[in-house]
Structure formats: structure tokens, C-alpha cells
Amino acid sequence: MKTQARVQRLSGQIVDLQRRAVFPGTVKWRGTRIATITRDDAVKETRLIMPGLVDAHIHIESSLLPPSEFARLAVIHGTVGTVSDPHEIANVLGEAGVRYMLADAKRSPLKFNFGAPSCVPATGFETAGAKLDAKAVSRLLARKDVRYLAEVMNFPGVLGRDPQLLAMMAAARRAGKQIDGHAPGLRGEQAAAYAKAGPTTDHECFTIEEARDKLAAGMKILIREGSAARNFAALAPLLKSHPDRCMFCCDDLHPDLLVRRHLDEHVRRALASGADKFDVLRAACVNPVEHYTLNVGLLREGDPADFIVVDGWARFRVERTYIDGALVASGGRSRLPRLEPKISNKFKARPVKPEDFALALPTDDKAGRKLNVIEALNGQLVTKHLTLPVSECDVAGDVIKLAVVNRYAPRAPVAVGLVRGFGLKAGALASTVAHDSHNIVAVGADDASLAAAVNLVIAERGGLSVVGPRVKAVLPLPIAGLMSAVDGREAARVYTKLDRAAKKLGSRLDAPFMTLSFMALLVIPDLKLSDRGLFSAAKWGFVPVG
Questions:
Q1: What does each C-alpha distance from 311 to 17, 47, 59 come to in angstroms?
Q2: Is residue 438 within 8 Å of 432, Cβ to Cβ?
Q3: Secondary structure in 3-state letters for 444-487
Q4: Alpha-carbon distance 261 to 166, whole Å?
């Protein structure tokens, strides 16, 4: 005879987001479902009981942790669900990479909701480890555990009516699944044309004017604050003008920040800005659940028992997190067990030499020659296209070398360009987290340091590294060259050590490794570097260094 689950109860100040009310009462749940929510004026506890938080767009791989380990840290901050695009690992391992994420996520109670990557590779101007065509994407969308078509990054392809992209979006509509957008900088008629083609969200707005154009086109706006892209301050006014059309997301969040915060920080900042508390929590909880029809509870009778306990509105510190009725975090500690991940990878790069990083320039000695230089911007994924009168590196002027090494072919030539904004006075950084094809991207003040940093990550078949006069350190990322196999807090500790070392070498960026990882992302304007050369998103083609 099956034993019926016992009833559990918790009293406090109930935050009812449907009725926009807070009242004293008790939540009772049996097993995984909420049984009753009753008002009780005799309840004196001041703690708040509210729905759990949902990140509306995050790449789990960018935490440098597999899903099961990401969950152990995220639940501490009140996260009960995510909407996650696995295109990072898909660019390395293809469909097998998506299946890896789905399988590992199932080992955790956190409610991961993965999409079918739409742009693998992101463009035809780079070398990736795999390709997902419309047939492969349709197969993924047919799965019940694949919830939506992930960000359609090739916005020029959408505007140009690319047949493969149109077929993917048609497959999503047939499956009754949402289509996520990604269209940095699109305004006016172009934004309207992009939205009309199918994408319903955008997380790439970096100005309020761009967001308003996309809202006018019918899209919903995801207010992003991650490790590299920080758009919260620019977009926070939308919480007052369009609260029903906003969601919160991190997009990419490295482990040093994940151990300290997740969407709970979005909520704290939004409340501090003067936004209405119910509108803020709808963006953090309700809007993503309703938009993607997620199986995440919203603190209603009959819902899954997914909720959090918060100390109050002023500090908004999460004290407990429940998922499907089980206590998964309390007192700032995760109650989820550490699970050993499986290792899967694709890595063929061989050691490089300093001479591989020579800058290819025309042989003529033309007076007054100017070179095309990428300008990295702190807190942004977009870059600027500069033309500067430099002959090669100018460390004093903050113009140093940027390189991309093909990780999928053992003897491919190294692509080399110039970048301003990293601030390195010596040494080099290297990373196999290099959106979106995840070749090896490196930045350095001299060729010997570049070669040494790249060889450190090649030796580990993936990782992040720093090389300098008094430092030589690496964080191994053996899972697809993207994720660590160690405890999340240990990964965060080593990452923090590398971050500090990069800043001691002169970097002024808030997150130098996260910024570096986007220097090869061609679909983000304007100038980037792929393994095949310098690329201008504005011209949608390659440009010479000089």
C-alpha cells in the first residue's frame, strides 16, 4: 500500500503575485504540490514567502560548471528554474552536447528548461566543432524536454530570409514553442521586421531607446546583468513603464559571481530603484513562467511547491529555497549533494610557438598607415571599430595582440589582430571559452606570453590561463573545454585567483576573462576576430588588419 506524503507547513507573510497582496498566513504542501494557502492574522512571523526566481536566459556553461553543480550554487540565491540555451556546448559537440546538458540537469531538482540551439555555428565565418541544421534542430524541438527555439543570433540571416533559419522557426511554431531573439542594435523598421519573422524576446538591448523600439515591435525585453554584459541600469526604467513585458536574466555569469549572487541581486537593485515590488517579482518569477509555460510553481494552490523564504524587502536575503516541496538550500548553504560529472570533449589543437603570433601586414612601407583595431568596452559585449596609426603593438597606448587558435584542427594558422581596452602591461590571458565556436582566444602584450598562455590551456584540453612575470596559472575545463569537473566553490576560488592576476597585469576590466570570451563572437557588433580573421558585423564580412 502506497504511503501518502505527510503535510508540511510554513507560516509567514505570503506574497501573492496574482492578487498583488501581502498577508499573514500559512502555506501547506503535501509531497510536491501546494495543498492550501490560508490567511491567518494570528501569524506574527515577518519573513516573506514568495515564488522562486527564474532566470529567463542563461548559458549554464558560462558558469564554468555543469548543470548539476550550477544548481548547487544557484538555489542558495532563491533560483528554482532557468531558461537555458545550450549552444555553447552544442558548438563543440553538436546534438550530443545538448543531450549531455539534458542528462546532467536531470540529476538535479532545479528546473532547467533547455532550448534547441538555432545558430550552430553562429556564422559561416568561423570554425566550430559541430553544425546543427534545420533537420537537427527540428529533431530537438520534437523532444518534450526541449522547451523552445534558442536565441536566433544570425539576425542578418533572419532579415535576409535565410531558408535554414526560416525552417527552424517554422518547426518551433509547429511544436507550439517560443522563439528567442538576439538582435543587438536593431532599431525601427529592422527591429519590427526581425520580430515579425518570429522571435518574441530580446536580451541584447543596451539602450532604453533600442528596447522601446523592440517593445513597439511586440517583443518582450530581458533585462540583463551578468559578468560581462551589464545593462540593468540602462533598462531598469522599463520596470515602471512596461512591467508586464520584462523579465530578468544573467545570460553569462562566471562562478566568482554565482557564489555571491544570482537573480536575487536583480531584485535588490530593482527594489532600490523604486520600482513596484509586485512588478519586480513578476519580472523575476511570473513573466518567464507564463511566457515559456514552465512547470514552475507560482505559490498557488495546486502548483508545484516551488517557493522561497526571504528575510524582508530591505535586504532581500534568501533564507530558504524549496523545489517540489523539498528544502534545497537554507542559511546560505546548499543542501544538494555534490555529483561527479561525466567528461566529454573535442580538442585537437597542438602546442604553438611565439612566431605563430606574428601579425600579418602588407609588405609595403606606406607612410601614415592605419590599422583596424578592436576596442573592448567594459560591461558590454559590443565593441568599437577603430583605425589607429600604430605599426603593431603599443603596450603603453593599450593596443596589444588578440589571437584565435583553432582548437578543432591541429595545424591551422593562428588568426591575429589588435585590441584596445584590456589594459595589460605585461603577460597574456587565454581561454577556450570563446563564444560561440569556442576556439582558443588569447590577448597578450608579447608573443612569448601569448604562446605560453595558449599552451597552458592546450595541455589541459581546455581552460582559462594567466601568464605574467610572476604568475603562471590555469583553471582546467575538461568538459567540452567549457566546464570544470571540480566543486563549484573551488572553481570559483581558482577563477577569482586568475581574475586578480589579470588585474595585477594591468587589466582595468571588471571581468577580463568574460570580456575576452566575447572577442570572437562575430554576431555582436562591430569588430571581432574569428579563427579565420578580423570580422566586421557592420559589413558582415572580413576586413584586413591593415
A1: 18, 5, 29
A2: yes
A3: ECCHHHHHHHHHHHHHCCCEEEEEECCEEEEEECCECCCECCCC
A4: 38
| pLDDT value of residue 524 | 87
Q: Are 426 and 109 in contact (CB under 8 A)?
A: no
Nearest residue to 159 via CA among 217, 235, 85, 222: 217
Distance of alpha carbon 384 from its chain centroid, rounded?
21
- Per-residue model confidence as pLDDT tens digits over 365-377: 555 679 999 999 9
pTM for this entry = 0.94
Q: Is the pLDDT of residue 2 over 80?
A: no
How many whole angstroms separate alpha carbon 114 and alpha carbon 91?
15
The CA distance from 73 to 166, in Å, is 38
Q: Residue 130: pLDDT above 80?
A: yes
Contact 249, 205 (CB under 8 A): no
3-state secondary structure 401-448: EEEEECCCCCCCCCEEEEEECCCCCCCEEEECCCCCCCCEEEEECCHH
Cell 513585458 belongs to: 245
Question: Rounded CA gap, 94 and 278, in Å?
Answer: 40
Phi/psi for 318 (5° steps) reads -75, 120
CA 113 – CA 136 distance, rounded (Å):
19
pLDDT band at 1 (very low <50, low <70, confident <90, very high): very low
Domains and CATH numbers, the chain: 53-294 (3.20.20.140), 354-542 (no CATH)
Q: Name the pLDDT band for 226 (thresholds 50, 70, 90).
A: confident
